Structures are given as C-alpha cells and as structure tokens.
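Recall from the previous lesson that a structure prediction takes nothing but the amino acid sequence as input. Here we apply that procedure to Hydroxypyruvate reductase from Halopenitus malekzadehii. The sequence below is the only information supplied.
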Amino acid sequence: MFDPTPAAASEPGATAVAAIADGIDAARPETVVDETVSVSTDTLRVGTDRYDLAAYDEVIVLGGGNAAGRLAGALADRLGDGLDGGVVVTDEPVPAGPIEVVEGTHPVPSEANAAGTRRLRRRARDADEGTLVLAPLTGGGSALLTAPAEGITTDELASLTDALLESGAPIERINAVRKHVSAIKGGRLARTLAPATTVGLLISDVTGDDPAVVASGPLAADPTTYRDALAVLTEYGVDAPDSVRRLLRAGIEGDRLETPTPADPAVAAASIHVLATNRTACAAAAEACETAGFETLLLSTSVRGEAREAAKTHVAIAEEIRQSGEPVSPPAAVVSGGETTVTVDGDGRGGPNGEFALSAAIELTDRATVATVATVDTDGIDGPTDAAGAIVTEETVPDDGTTSTDGTDGILREAQARLADNDALPFLDRRDALLVSGPTGTNVNDLRVVIVPAASSTPDDPPESQYLYESHDWSR
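The prediction returns the following tokens.
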C-alpha cells in the first residue's frame, strides 16, 4: 500500500508525484463504487436512484474500457450472489466474480476486442424487460468495445483509429467518426438492450464529462451525424480506408440508419451515472499539495489543444508566480487536468504527456524559470508508449554547452529537434525523467502538477522517478 511521506517545499518532485498518486487513487473504481453504490436487502442504490432487485429475473454487467474490469469487480463484490454474470472488455483483466472479463488492446482495436464485443452484444440481445443491466463504461472504451459496422473490417478500423489519433483532432471529433463506423457506439448499445432496464456507470476521461463522448457514448444520444463524421476526415486530413468513406457517404445519402437522437426511446430510458471525472483526481491532487504546505491553484480540468503549446502556458504561470506571487504565492502548486493532443508530423515515439513535459523542460530553460512539472495520463499509458508521463525541471534540458547523446550538438538543441520530430520518449528516458507505472486501473484523463518553490529555494535535480513511482502499489 502506498503511503507517501509528506514532502517539504525543498522536495518538489516528491510532492508532485505523491499528489498525482493521490489523484489517481481517488478516481479508482473501487474507491468510487464504495462511495456511490450500495446494496441493502433487495435494494441496489446508485447515487440517489434505487432499484428493487427482486423485480428482475436477472442482473448482469455489460461494458468496457480501461477501468471496466475493476469496476465490474467492485460491482461483483457489492452484489454477490445477486449477480448473474455478464461481459466486460478491458486491457487490464482482473477477477470479477461471475462476469466474463475479456482482455483487449488499447489504444488501437484488435480482433481480441472485436471477439469480446461480439460476446457482449450476444448477451445484450438476450436481455429483456426482466433484466437489469449495469453498464460500466470508462475511458478506453472507444477502442476496447470494437464492433465494426457492416462493410468494415477490424483491420480497417484499426487503421482508421491510428490515423485519427495522429491527426490532432480533439476527442469529441474523433469519436464522432468512431460512432458512425460502429454497431455499438453512439447509443446503439442502448437500442440493443431495450427493453431491459439499463444503468450506465461511467468513469469519464473527457473534458466536460459528456456521456455521449465517454467511450463514444454506447448508451447516449448522439448529437453528431454521418455528415459530421465525414467533415472530420476532411478537416484533419485523415487517411481513412475507402470502406469508411463509402459507409459515411451512404449514411449521408440516407442508405444507413443514423445514430439515436434524444427522442429515441431506448436512449431516453437509459439511466447514466458519472461516478468519477478528471475533477475527482485534480481535487485530490490539489488537497495533497495543500497538505504538503503549498499554496495551491486548481487551474482547470479542461486544458486542451496541442500539448507543446499548453506546456508553455503552464510554464508562463509558474514564471508569473515566481516573479509576482500571482495568482498564488510561492511555495506554490498548480494542478490541472483535461486532455491535450498531438498532431504527429514526425517519426518519433511519444504521447501527449511526454510531449507536454519535453516542451515544458525546453521552456523552463529558455525562460530561466525554476519549477518542477509532472504530467501523466491517469491510466498509466501515455498514448502508444509504456510510460505514464514524465517529470521535468529547469535542469532537465541544460543550456550549458553539454554535449548531446550523439556527441554532435548541445542538449538544448537536441531537445528542440526531438520535440519537432514528436520523439519525446527516448530523450526523456535518457534524462531519467519518465514516470512508469503500468496500468493504474482507472482512466480520468491527464493530470499535471507544477511546483514552484519559494524564491530562496535551491532547485533540486529531478527525483528518481522510477523509485518514486514504483514505491506505489499501482496494481491495487
């Protein structure tokens, strides 16, 4: 069990990592189920809603996402013998009582995802008015719940996903496309489940926490259309398979059924509860910083746009704090969340948090600002990498004539070139800046902590990130 030692202002790296750990812990499925779901006699309580379990012939769990396995396991613990099984698709399989937990891949869908989703849809089609369906849907569900629309193969869907993720499009635009090439997303699972009683249990990884965007909204009405989806491909120059473009054009011409609108009785009947959000994690991280003695600002849970540009704004805020004591006085902490994106133009390796960290490190050097910046994806997987994110200071990219790893240039010049090539991961690895946790069991988007020490403080070197991260039991 992770029990971080309270960090003093002279240990900014330890404070930042401990705060991130607290944020992730607060958003774990086990934590939020403890707080929001209970069973007493024959009554299931979800938030303020009550369900008479005796009124149903069966209670099943159907869902998917990074945290869906753990969420299913927590539900199984709550319901015990009152649960009749189900299917969830996740990239972190854990025991979940009678529920079948299918291991899939993330962030790119695979045949394993499609096979698990076929089993889920068969169980959904068997549901009737005597069935109570609890549907855990979490971040990562867009990839893990893979049901290609007729005429599209799983490989074509994987190719489309790769292209969308590299386009720099915001997640709601990406998911507008995903919904219209799927037989389960965009409210279509709700249609399949009707007339069962359906209760969606969401852990949100999107800014705004819109149920229509989380996991591409399998239970929610869809405000987008086939025409919107095709416009995304055009606007962001997405190299989509021909089968995808043919399908979208057929939908525009009225030859394919549109996704459900709010007037559709199936989605109108589904009850959706958002159990945890990015704010859940940010609030816990902010509390940890305050406890450690830092004046703390929760900047925003909706930071978006290009990762490298958002990083510059965060460093600018740190610089203002250092120079003027505004908007908070040092020693200070700035906590933020949301989801930044990367438009991939280069051939390197990295994710949004790695790119954010590298851009911040360069900016700290350029602006001569003293600060520590830690940034992670709360699921423990930053884009297509094995790292959760990174932690950097003004010492990560020194501008002191130090020779680069290839012996040809200074480290600052190398960092700038790596950023231009979307190649943050190997550079940050060599600078001992990566934060590696493995799957954390939840997904509520990105979480960042910026620590600005008091003006008299001497900056520390970046902490041994492996030690700090591995001291936490991320497998809980």
